[in-house]
Amino acid sequence: MAAFDSTARKQAPPEVPFRTPPHNIEVEQSLLGAILVNNEAFYRVSDFLEPNHFFEPIHQQIFEIAGNLIRFGKLASPVTLKTFLPADLDISGLSLNQYLARLAAEATTIINAEDFARTIYDLSIRRDLITIGEDMVNLAFDAPVEMAAGDQIEIAERRLYEVAETGHYGRGFDSFSNALARSLEMAAAAHHRDGRLSGLATGLATLDRQMGGLQPSDLIILAGRPGMGKTALATNIAYDIASNYAGEPTADGRSKTVSGGIVGFFSLEMSAEQLATRIISHETQIPSNLIRRGGIKSHQYDAIVDATHNMQQTPLYIDDSGGLTIGQLAARARRLKRQIGLDLVVIDYIQLLQGTTRRSSENRVQEVTEITTKLKALAKELNVPILALSQLSRQVESRDDKRPQLSDLRESGSIEQDADVVLFVFREGYYVKNREPAMIKDGQETTQHKEWAEEYDKVKGIAEVIVAKQRHGPTGTVPLQFEGEFTRFTALANPEDLPETIRDFIS
After folding, report:
1. Which helix (DSSP H) or strand (DSSP E) does residue 143 occupy?
2. Residue 293: Cβ within 10 Å count
3. What is the CA radius of gyration of the chain?
4. How many whole angstroms separate alpha carbon 264 and alpha carbon 378?
5. What is the rounded CA–CA span in Å between residue 452 and residue 437?
6. Quick one: which of 382, 390, 381 has its CA closest to 419?
7. pLDDT of 303
8. Would you give the end-to-end CA distance of the chain in angstroms?
9. Are the C-beta atoms of 357 and 370 separated by less than 8 Å?
């Protein structure tokens, strides 16, 4: 028995010593001292460093108060700071006055401020990762029976994304002054940006004027009956935004989008190759059916080769996985933003997504409700617009006027409620063409065909984007030109500049 006990003692794991979270008090003191000596140091680090990145609570307070003073154009120094902190503080045996004076006396130079700030930031991220890792282990051991392993992965990925985004998401209450500052920054960016848009430019000037571009954190629903061209319009917008992308490095080593954007396209219906073929047709003006059938001539093939060479660096990322759940889609979007960047998400289309809960799969309305609610939450989390395509119910076909209405959305309650913007694509020419009567009777063109031809000429190639709902703008109809053979939408002139027949038809 004694031998057994001895063996057990030898095999017992060694005690793990207590480890303090990674931090560097001296670096924090040096940076704060630099800021108190020269307030210009604050502007070199304020783009990415926040008070909560400091390990020592008193350092968090000092950085926050100093930042507020500097932003309001006041001097941040040991003399001005002490009026905002408790006078009876005891910091390692030093009074408040003594501690602030020592920070200033032992300050680093402003040249080193950015390097010290990055050290503080990196140590803070490491502490957050330790917390997430501990929580992951505890959750894996004690997960509820009804929680799937995939749900745990999604939770971990979401928390990692929050860390990667420096804690901007889910941080609780925010002051109105901060909200006002961000609103002013948005207005300034719109004022200085080409086209005076506050959001992403779609490449369709008339649509941009109606919507102000695609706004961050908005869920935008683009719906239409089959054959209206909703996938073509979404593809046009996605490629135009990606092809105009330009970025610049920021102080924390990341890249900031200054025009266009990085696009993530979830194509649940079409393959990535089919989407690429549509874009090639759009750019080369070679009919996509000829490209697919191989019915192109040598000069057209050369044009395709040149176009694909020019488009290779376009930041358009396509995920054509079928049967995705909303949880999987969200995880992949977070990963794309964390690893590369993301400015727009396109989903083709909502009805092909699946819910994540067992209850939702039993009821399609509940499932779509879960999907749209989580898409809206994802748009806010990523702070990017999400353009999601949706089908319309067949009740459109039973009306004389085929223009869609909000009630035509499939499972319309949740889609209409959660969406910030609802767009409908409508082409009267599609329906008129299908009503073509017999052309020849008794060797002559029939009266009915002449009347039909006149009607078709008025609407041929004309599409309408109906803005049926918009939280921060007017509703209305935007006319567009549609070239079916190239699956391309282009902007028309202002309605006042259109021919009278087309203007009367649209109105």
Report:
1. none
2. 9
3. 30
4. 13
5. 7
6. 390
7. 83
8. 97
9. yes
Sequence-ordered list of residues with C-beta below 8 angstroms from that of 503, at least 6 positions apart, any chain: 495, 496
Taken in order 314, 320, 321, 327, the sign of the CA dihedral is positive
Alpha helices for 54-169 (secondary structure H): 57-71, 78-81, 96-105, 113-142, 149-164
Find all residues with CB under 8 Å of 277, minimum gap 6, and list them: 288, 291, 292
- Look at residues 422, 421, 424 and name the one whose alpha carbon lies nearest to residue 472: 421
Count of the separate structural domains present in the chain: 2
Residue ending a domain, among 73, 101, 120, is: 120
pLDDT tens-digit readout, 402-455: 788 888 886 656 788 888 999 999 888 788 777 777 666 655 667 777 777 777
Alpha helices in 214-260 (DSSP H): 230-243
The answer to the question of residue 14 being in a domain is no
Q: Are 328 and 214 in a shared domain? A: yes
Query: Which amino acid is residue 118, in one-letter code?
Result: R
The answer to whether 477 touches 506, Cβ cutoff 8 Å, is: yes
Residue-level pLDDT at 221 = 92
Give the integer Cα–Cα distance in Å for 121 and 111. Answer: 17
Task: Kindly report whether the global pTM for this prediction surpasses the value 0.70.
Answer: no
Given pLDDT bands bounded at 50, 70 and 90, which one contains residue 334? confident
> For residue 291, what are the contacts with CB-CB under 8 A and spacing of at least 6?
277, 280, 281, 304
CA distance 207 to 202: 8
List, in sequence order, every residue forming a beta bridge with 347; answer none if it has no partner.
Answer: 266, 388
DSSP secondary structure letter of residue 396: G
Task: Indicate whether 71 and 200 sit together in one domain.
Answer: no
Report residue 160 as tokens: 């990692």
**What are the C-alpha distances in Å from 184 to residues 177, 179, 409?**
10, 9, 36
Peptide bond before residue 456 is cis, with ω within 30 degrees of 0: no
| Residue for token pair 């009607």 | 455
Same domain, 77 and 200: no
